[in-house]
Write a structure and sequence with these properties.
Helices cover 68% and strands 0% of the residues. The protein is mainly alpha-helical and 224 residues long.
Amino acid sequence: MTLDDEPLQDIEEGKAIELDCEDFDTYRQLGDMYEKESCFDDALECYLKAAEFKEDGSWEFLNHWGIIVSDWGRIDEALEFYNKALSDPEISIEGRNEVNYNCGVLLLEDERLDEALVHLNDAVNLGLETAEAYYHLGLAHAKLGYNVIALKNFNDAITENPHWGEYHLRLAQTQEELGKIDSAKESYQKAIQLDINNHEARIGLENITEHSQPKKRRYFWKRK
């Protein structure tokens, strides 16, 4: 099965139950029809029902549904799809990396940091060496206070893609947290160079420059 399978043309609302044809493909196709009509609650119900009939090799659909319903703000349901996808015995290494990454990013956005770290680490350790993966892994480490590891993650992200200002911004903030002031200044400047509208980087550079300036000594002369 692939995501390119054509949906059956004669499946209509309620027909799956009327035909006593409750299986993975029937609910999958019915869910697709609801989604096209923007009937998201009905689509979600069908996708969840399809997941109950999960077949070996269906991880691609489950991952796809996780992405879709996370965009609808249904985080718990999205995580359910991702976890079912990861339990598929036929999932490939590349597929496992993709699902772990998607799951980790969603958990990170939901501030479930420890869980996010597990999935993002699994993705990277299994070979997902992309700038985005390193970046989100760095965010998880930084939010948890593991700044030394986060520093390495952000540097790895920049190695993979040195042209994205956001990576340099997060590197600068981590360097600042670690007291690496000169390096932080350079990273803030690089972030601004790559994105002149990076307001956060401009503020960071201004603050770090202001606080690193030596204070002028004030002399008070007594009046005669």
